[in-house]
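Checked the freezer inventory, then went back to the computational side. Two predictions to log before the end of the day. The first one is the construct we discussed on Monday; recording sequence and tokens without edits.
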Amino acid sequence: MYNLTYGQKKLVEWLVSNVKNEYLNESFFIHWKYTGLIAEVGWISSYKGLQKDLRTITQHSIKVLAENKLLIYKVKSPHDPASFSKNEVWDCALIPDIYNALDNNFICTDTSFSDYLTPLTDPSGFDDELADRCFPILATGGSDPTLWDSAVRTAGVILEERLRDVGNISDPNQTGQSLVSKVFGKNGTLESKFSVPSEQSGYRDLYAGIVGAFRNRSAHRLVDPSPEEGGAFIVFVNLLLKKLEDLR
């Protein structure tokens, strides 16, 4: 929630309205006239509307809007207290959040959920082997599809190796969906981990699907996925690795 008074909200409304009506630029200068140490009401020299419509603006209100991250300002010509009467100029600029604040009726929406939708931005929770082997590949060019191709292929190999490890499969010839069946199928090595047969078959279908649709495809030909597709795959593999670790 924005910490604004009614008058400060009306100032936001006035600023946005005048920018949209092209009476005011998003960047503007506010001139303050001082009498001794007291700043009188400020005015905007570039305002194109009628002077009688120029809203009352105070230094405090501008500071509050800045504290709420609705605009930024910089004192361009600071006031000299030794001068009895002198102008001070503030260089101000609206920032995009001021429009969102007004559109949302000053209700500050919680966007922290986006952090969970883009976990690659914080790799601290990633599987260690996945991070150690895939991230250095991408560090040389995160927008290069050929590097994502290598990272995706590596992630698929890690998943297959983890299936062997957690599933106690020593036969190196077991690969792909055959490997998944040995681990999650009927009489599979992890069958004792499931008390509900449908959950066991769900795991089998899930891992068989990812192996068949993605792992095999990237293992046998060049795919060169987009960064968005490659990132989504690696995030999903990370989840599958975590689920496997939970079954140890």
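The second is the one RB wanted added to the comparison set:
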Amino acid sequence: MLFSMLETYAQDPTIRYGTGVPPAVRSINDRSLRYLANTQLEDGSWPSGQNGAGITGICVMAFMASGEDPDYGPYATHIRKALRNMIINQNPKTGYMTGYGHGSMYHHGFAMLALSEAYGAVNEELLWKGSETPANRRRTIGEALELAVRCALTAQEKNPWGAWRYSPGSQDADTTVAGTVLMGILGARNAGIEVPNEAIDKALTFFQTCTMRGGGVSYQPMSSHGDSVTRTAIATLVYAIGKRKDTPEYKSTSEFIKRRMDQNTRSGYAFYNLYYMAQALFQSDLKAWQVWNQRIIEKLQGMQQEDGSFTSSYGSAYATGMAVLTLALNYRLLPIYER
């Protein structure tokens, strides 16, 4: 009975455009966005334990995920300030979009994906309006995105595994960083930025190398670190967006996450897990996603703080943005969320 009801819900065309979104999702989303708007710093970033381009990018996507007008809507100024911050702090020579401390390529990947979603959606003529930034530090979103993609591809070319790890010069790779960067590249390709097929193929081959017989995905080749649901969700997602749904690896990873979709992850990585599980289940099995989604809506309702935020060891901006993006598939408005 539940599946038949959910199937009807999924086929309602109003859902595709966000008009049939559950009230609980709208409430969580609206309170979260108000929190992010109220806590954004004057320079366009957010105070966070992992402050940097990736966190800023996550917040940009959160503002855009429910269909708020990025040019004239209530959060248009916040979106523009955040995008300007990302562009100003991008290395103009290498294209690197970094963060503070450990895990900078995570920042680069999320920032690249955010630029991909903003490219073509945000009016470039309004982007720098009212800004005192010198002309020589300004770039269009498209220019910044092309630079960011070039940085990622250059790092991949230097990497023996054809993937990525913590820095652009890393000589090893892991599936968590690689998934974040690859999704940024796939988002850029979807937005019309030229990306060689060879680059996508090499990265997906790395994931195939790390996909184990039972469907779980290892952290690095020949080193499992256990059978992580999160890593397997990442692999399922990149296989799907990378158009590899016909491979045995995709079939095994998608079945793996469905078997484990009720499994809780370590609290420190909870929002990272939810973010990827939402997208992976949505891409692989709509009915499974619908059941999982209803449970997660209830879970997030209980986790949201009075001020609209969510908390994490990585900071409230990160946690709140990721919570919004976990539920964003109820709106299905960001291009990267298309099936």
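For RB: The first helix runs from residue 2 to 11. The chain has one domain: 2-337. Let me know if you want it refolded.
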